[in-house]
Structures are given as structure tokens and as C-alpha cells.
Amino acid sequence: MSFTLAIVGRPNVGKSTLFNRLVGKRLALVDDQPGVTRDLREGAARLADLRFTVIDTAGLEDVTDDSLQGRMRRLTERAVDMADICLFMIDARAGVTPTDLVFADILRKRAANVILAANKGEGAAADAGVIEAYSLGLGEPIRLSAEHGEGLNDLYTHLMPLADGFAERAAEDAPEIDVTLDEDEGDMEATTPQPTNAKPLQVAVVGRPNAGKSTLVNQILGEDRLLTGPEAGITRDAISLRIDWEGPDGVAVPMRIFDTAGMRKKAKVQEKLEKLSVSDGLRAVKFAEVVVVLLDAAIPFEQQDLRLADLAEREGRAVVVAVNKWDIEEDKQGKLKELRESFERLLPQLRGAPLVTVSAKTGRGMDRLQAAIMRAYDVWNRRVTTAHLNRWLAGMMEAHPPPAPQGKRIKLRYMTQAKTRPPGFVVMCSHPDKVPESYSRYLVNGLRVDFDMPGTPIRLYMRGQN
Ligand code: GDP
Ligand code: GDP
């Protein structure tokens, strides 16, 4: 999965037909996670040797009333912001319609990479429409028949060079950017570096002793290598294992898993382990991009688990919470509800982070865990355009104006995303020190929901103007 492609366009042009063709049966198993939007369908796509994530704005079919335009616009904007590349689809038989023009406009303004496709392109009835598509000013249209599978070669040819670009970008070890206002940041950026073969995704599995960390890693490895390896039980530094984690679609995702003491040799003394798991977890967390907090379903959210999760958040890592030993859980539904409630209550700082149930022993849920890790990584790297942010900020202030301490209203003037990994935002305002914590929280929660950023810490910095 090297990049994300969003299929956008008005209803009925054939978006879902293409989505289904690209995804086949390999639908991403992320639907049951909190924070995942219901209106956007996401799937693991394959086109020849390309592997990528595809997003479909599927929720639109049901809308027939006046709100269509607004809804369509919002959903499309969202899909565009999530994607590295947009495939804009029109119906070649119908030609270019006024609604198509609305979409074209959104894409021209917002999307970094647009591929234009004139669908239903089989047969002469489509000739005129394909020609007309040039008038959209989005380049040469690909003549496609999603239904008959025609034109996919062309689609591949258009995607290839763009896909290469994302692979290269991900290969550079992206340094942490200082939180400074980047004046040049305009509307162009929509990049989400993804793990590629060049750079394994760095994952730490942390959790209390006996949560099942070693079993989990062994399950991924597919062999009993971990505890018997030459590294067992000696070094106190975090060590790592380079693995290729094969997903449900047979594609191996390169990862480096950072090991903790509990995963190496079992000390005889349990008490020692209890102490170790936090300090050792810290070491692993430092190296990681994504932290998997592994809980034991029988004793979830213990003090140590909370400390480790909080640690990961403070270190700015993407977080996935995995609940292990799900195989022995009897009341799965009731337990899940209880877990979600505890999660909300005990780890509000990780709101929306994915909660995945797994059995490290049987291997159930491993696909979902992998999908959650990939997605958390993706969100962690996400960039929101400045134009979009400021429109959003205006709306947030309108809905709920900042307070006015001593009769002086705090003015929030301007907002920009200063960094990724994790996403960090700077708000230029009149009295940065007077902005109450509750208002910052309001903005952070809003960012999380409106820009669909579950499972990642979000940093917000208030800055004065001078
Ligand atoms: P969406 O609403 O944009 O997701 O469009 P759908 O994928 O649901 O397709 C709308 C209709 O167009 C369906 O009846 C499809 O069977 C049909 N359709 C999709 N692709 C093609 C195509 O390439 N050729 C023709 N003739 N019909 C198509
Ligand atoms: P670690 O200390 O976190 O590395 O935990 P281990 O991987 O050593 O597992 C601790 C115990 O839990 C072992 O007895 C495992 O067999 C057991 N265990 C691990 N995962 C599962 C699971 O998914 N289901 C069940 N029933 N037991 C598990």
C-alpha cells in the first residue's frame, strides 16, 4: 500500500463499479473502528503490480434531496484530503454535466494529483463525451469501462509515475520538523508518505507482562523464532526484528518490530518484570512510529497499560490498542462495549484510536490489527491544507466563539499545519496565553473528527503575532 487513491465524481458515473473492480474481495477491515467515517468506503486495491488504498465516496447514492450539493461537496473534499491521488470520474455517455463542473472545480483547487476518467467508455456512444472531457481542463481523460474492465491499462500507465513519486518520498527518512510557521505552505500539499519496501514501518508492541506480546510477534513471524533467537535475554537495549507481515491480500508489509524485555527472556521474578515493562516499553516507544498497546482481555486497562498508552501519546506516536486473548472471551459483545467505555473514560487523550480484538494464539484478528496499524501510520503522517484549515477554523469560531477574558475577546487569526508525525498545528492569535485549555481541546477534538484523524496525538500550539 504505497498511496491512497480517491475515486470522486457525481453519483451514478460508475465509481463503485471501479472500486469493486480494484478491490475485489479485499475490503479493508476497518469499518468497526471508532472514528472511521461511514460515508467513505476504503479498500485495499490492486492493479497489476501496484498495491494501494482506494477510497470511494459511496454514501452519496442515498441522497436525493436539496442537501445533495453540500453533502457531495463535503464528502468529496474529505476524500480529496485523505488521498494522494484523485481519480475524477465522469460518465462519457452523458458528457460533461453542470455537476461535473462543480467537482472539477473542487479538484482543481484542492487536489495535488488528479487523473481524469471518462467512464462507460465502451462503444461509439461514448466518443463525444470522451472528447468533451478535455474541456474540464484536467488533462487527457482516460477512456474507461469500469463495468467491462476496459482502459485499466491506461489507468495503470497514469498511476505508475505518481506511485513512484510516493515511494521515493517515503524512502527519505522524514525528519521531525520544528514547529515554525511555514510561509510557503499553500494549497498544493496533500502528501501522505507511506511505508514502502525501502523503509519498514517501525512498530513497538508494549503491554504488561503476560499480555501476549511474544505470542503476538511469533504469530506474525509465523515461527517460534523470537524467544529462542540469539538475542534472547541478554541485551537491555531495545532490539528489533525486521519482519514482513503478510496481509490478507498476500502483500507483505515490511516492518521493524521493537522488542521489550517481556518479549525476550522471561525473568523468574514477576515483580521485576512489572517494573521492567514500563521502562522497557518506553525504550521501544522511542524507536517506534506506531505503538501497539496490547491488553489482556481478562484484565484490560490496568495501571501499567494506562501508563504505557499515555507514554506513547506523550511521545507523539500513533497508537493502536489491541485486546488480546479474545478467543477465551465468552461474552464478546458485552465485553467490547465495556472495553470501549473504559477506553473513553480512562484514555481520553487517545480518543478515537482504533481498538482491535485479537487472539495472538489463534491468529484471529491479525488482519484487522495490520490494517489498523497501517491506517494509524497514515493518519499520523496526514497533512491538511492551510486553506481548508482556515475555512474550518472560521466555522469552529462561529459555532463556538473563543472566550473574552476581562471583556477582551481572544482573536484566532490564522491556522496552519506546521508538522506531521504526529500532526501539529499552529494557531496565530491575539492572546496565546489566555486561550483556555477547554478551547484548545474543543479545537483538537474538532480537528480529529472533521479531518478524520483517529489514533494519533494532535498537537496544537497557540502563537502570538509579532
Ligand atoms: P457510482 O454511483 O458513481 O458509484 O456508480 P455505480 O458504480 O453504482 O454505477 C452506476 C451505474 O452505471 C450502474 O448501473 C453500473 O452498472 C453502471 N456502470 C458502471 N460502469 C459502467 C461502464 O463502464 N459502462 C456502462 N455501460 N455502465 C456502467
Ligand atoms: P508477554 O509477556 O506479553 O510476552 O506474554 P506471552 O506471549 O509470553 O504470553 C503470556 C501467556 O498468555 C502465555 O501463556 C500465552 O500462551 C498466553 N497467550 C498469549 N496470547 C494468547 C491468546 O491470544 N489467547 C490465549 N488464550 N492465551 C494467550
What does this structure look like?
One of its GO terms (molecular function) is GTP binding. The chain is of the alpha/beta class. The chain is built from twelve helices and 15 strands. Strands 2-3-1-4-5-6 form a six-stranded mixed beta sheet, sandwiched between helices. Strands 8-9-7-10-11-12 form a six-stranded mixed beta sheet, sandwiched between helices. A three-stranded mixed beta sheet has the order 13-14-15. Strand 5 (114-119), helix 4 (127-133) and strand 6 form a beta-alpha-beta unit. 44% of the residues are buried. The structure holds guanosine-5'-diphosphate (GDP) (2 copies).
How would you concisely characterize the structure shown here?
By secondary structure, the chain is an alpha/beta fold. About 35% of the residues lie in helices and about 20% in strands. Bound molecules: guanosine-5'-diphosphate (2 copies).
